[in-house]
Amino acid sequence: MENITLDSLSEEINKIKDRNAKVEAEKAWETSMHRKISILILTYMIISLVMYFLDFDKPFLNAIIPTSWYLLSTLSISFLKKRYINKYTSKRG
Q: What is the pTM of this model?
């Protein structure tokens, strides 16, 4: 059997705390407004460039449409996620 010491337990606890902090930070990023705005800007820029090089009329104006749909999808997905979680947890409890 492994020789368990207070130091080894403390080290394991610190590893778990570090991992949990990383998971919490990643979750915070996934749900952050900063991430959504960054993706929104990048989406607009890429779509604008694609439309420009494909010779669309008014590519910088027309790129607003798919970018807006991205924004709407992120807002509605959050709503649907909350609804799903509430429904799922009420069935289990």
A: 0.64
Q: Quick one: pLDDT at residue 22?
A: 93
CA distance 55 to 24: 44
Does residue 14 have a pLDDT over 90? yes
d(CA 62, CA 48): 8
Neighbouring C-alpha atoms within 13 Å toward the C-beta of 20: 6
Size of the chain in residues: 93
> Phi then psi for 61, rounded to 5 degrees?
-80, -45
Nearest residue to 70 (alpha-carbon basis) of 41, 34, 30, 27: 41
User: Over the Cα atoms of the chain, what is R_g?
Assistant: 22
